[in-house]
Amino acid sequence: MSHQTISSDVRERVQELHEILQRANHQYYVLDDPELPDIEYDRRLRELQDLESEYPQLQTPDSPTQRVGAEPLSFFEEVRHEVPMLSLDNAFNNEELLEFDRRVCERLNSKGPIEYACEPKLDGIAVSLLYRNGVLVRAATRGDGTTGENITQNVRTVGSVPLRLHQGDISYPGILEVRGEIYMPKTGFAELNRKAASVGEKLFVNPRNAAAGSLRQLDSRVTAQRPLELCVYGTGLVEGGELPDEHVNTLQLLGQWGFRTNREMRAAKDIQGCIDYYREIGDKRESLPYDIDGIVFKVNSIPLQRRLGFVARAPRWAMAYKFPAQEEMTELLDVEFQVGRTGAVTPVARLKPVFVGGVTVSNATLHNRDEIERLGVMIGDTVIIRRAGDVIPQVVSVVEKERKPGGQVIEFPGHCPVCGSPVESTPGEAAVRCSGGLICSAQRKQAIKHFASRKAMDIDGLGDKLVEQLVDEGLLHSVSGLFRQTLEQLAGLERMGQKSAQNLLDALEKSKETTLPKFLYALGIREVGEATARNLAGHFGELQPLMAADVEALQEVEDVGPVVAHFVAEFFQQPHAQEEVEALQQAGVHWAAEETDGLDQPLAGQTWVLTGKLETLSRGEAKDYLQRLGAKVAGSVSVKTSTLVAGPGAGSKLSKAQELDITVLSEEELLDLLRERGFEI
What we know:
Distance between the termini: 86 Å
Number of helices: 24
């Protein structure tokens, strides 16, 4: 095979595929601006793989096919860095940064301001990439700064690492060592852990650990499956060429040669500009797509860097200004359980106070029962707490070597710690929830807001802020309490005068006349939306038989399965719920009896769609009338659609209905139909 004759056409095609795929990789991984569709990229890559398989001598180290990984290694070879990879000194406050600037000016005998290059300090793994004549020949970890490990096979799989350099305005040196950080973006980390959880594998603690673990795989095919990225921050050995005299300009040139550089990088004219930059990036830290743990400031002038030199294991011309620590160790003293607005019962860790992320933390979330089991955490353990920005502190791991005898197992309550209702877990859902619904005071505000919403009882003027104010003032303890409000109580609230109070009382009185479907929806029973509420009302006709129905009877209702049936039955079995429903009826909430299934529902089994602008009815009103006649109202046109109601401005739905030969009615024709069925419109 090695003596196989290769035509010039084949050689040219291989070179062409190299260029196409290298450009596509650069556009996708470095510029975040893909121009080649995935399917087309895969087609070109497969073609190149086939050609290299047929003509092995055409496969080169910089071939795009080398990104898929190679056969596993038995160990990592040791690499000695030509130029040591030094660490950085750290500053932890403005005073220490100002002192760094003072030392720089003193050593340079400079009275004027020093210009600095400013870059976010990525929380990843430092690597060295060595290029000869523009081709990647070696990649190594930092190690102890003098020697590292050869991870070339793994680094070749990282899409943002150029296997061959691009030509820029200035030609790259014959020998170029580039240094940077390989990291895992936040979204990639979340997806990696999601996949691991789905197959029962151990989760990574944070993106840095995930990146480190991925780079140290002996099987590079595993690394190829991990969402890693490279961002370069400097150079090491350079021979056979010149680089700019400013650090920022050097990084810009590296960008031309195909490397990803940090978009937040810029120069500051003086040390105050550095402090401003630190504050600016700190404010946007949580919105960045990657983790950072500080800012690196470097004297921008390379000649000045050379004059300043090094001390021990760090350069005199650079300083890392660290953000407050986001992770710290402390002791888990106890666990309490809180009930959220949706009924989720959340375990909260009570901690020995610890300073982390710029504040003293004494509480942290443990999320749910599954998370406690995953962590293997017990009361009395030493744990690692993470706090990022304004995110609620969380327990991320247990320091098992610090575990003491006598740790207490964390047990979830069987009943809501607030209202005493049973707590429930749903298959496929990690959260455990209180079944009390609107009678649980922890869920009260949300329950009242839902009860008053437009699609429920439609109480005009009862906004979220007013609900919160009423509850906080101790004037409202349940949804039925809405109808016990007085003019004096309401008028005495902040920003509520006599007129506003009277308007709200009038709205409450008006809302008492409703329909059974709206009332059922307003109760906030889990998984009971508008359609399910209508089906329940249509099937049972009245409230009492519905409240008395067991799970089997409820499953006879259209579109009600065992899960929803259980939620409905459980809700109406609660004494508190029964009392609240009775209180609402005693307050005057009423409705006309519903027609049961099969009676006066001429549109039963039909699917209708509404499109365009309706001028007499609102879209919600039209939907309500149609559902009362038994129709299902869908959002899109399909072969199952029976009729389309089209108002002015109807577009693609009308066109599709005409293509499928579906009956199309105008709003006036719909109004005629509704009037024929006894609706007064």
